[in-house]
C-alpha cells in the first residue's frame, strides 16, 4: 500500500494495531536520522519484526533499514507512476510477487519482469500487480 503524503497520512489511517505500531516504530527510527545532518536517502524502507516471545509477550521492533532498491521496489514504482499520472489518486495497493514453479496463470494486469529458469531454484516468475487505486481519502479507502 502506497499512500500520498507523509508519515501523518499513514498515521491517520484506521489500521490494525500491529500495523499502526509498526508505522510508529519506523517513524521513530526515521526521525533518528536527523542526528546526521546532510544525510539523504531518496527511498527509505524499514523491516519490522512482530510476534509473541516464549513468555507470551507481544514484541515489535525495527529489524533493519533498507534504503536501497529491494524486492518491493517494483510495486512502489508502479504506485508512484499511477500517482504521477493522476494527482487525485490518494492510495494504491500494489504487490511485487515472486513465484516458484511453473506458473500457468498470472493476473491479467501483471507486469512480468522475469519468467525463466534459475539454475539453483528452478522455474521462477517475478511480476508486479496493482490491485487498487483510489481517489478517496486514505482514511476512507483502507478497510
Q: Could you give the topology of this structure?
A:
Layout (H helix, E strand, L loop, with lengths): L1 E2 L3 H5 L5 H15 L14 E7 L5 E8 L7 H13 L5 E10 L10 E8 L3 E13 L3 H4 L2
Antiparallel strand pairs: 1-4, 2-3, 4-6, 5-6
Low-confidence stretches: none
Helix content: 25-40%
Strand order of the largest sheet: 1-4-6-5
Number of strands: 6
Termini separation comes to 12 Å
Strand content: 25-35%
Largest sheet: 4 strands, antiparallel
| SSE order | EHHEEHEEEH
Protein structure class: alpha+beta
By DSSP (H or I, 4+ residues per run), the number of helices equals: 4
The coarse silhouette is globular
CA radius of gyration is 18 Å
Number of domain modules = 1
Mean pLDDT rating: 90
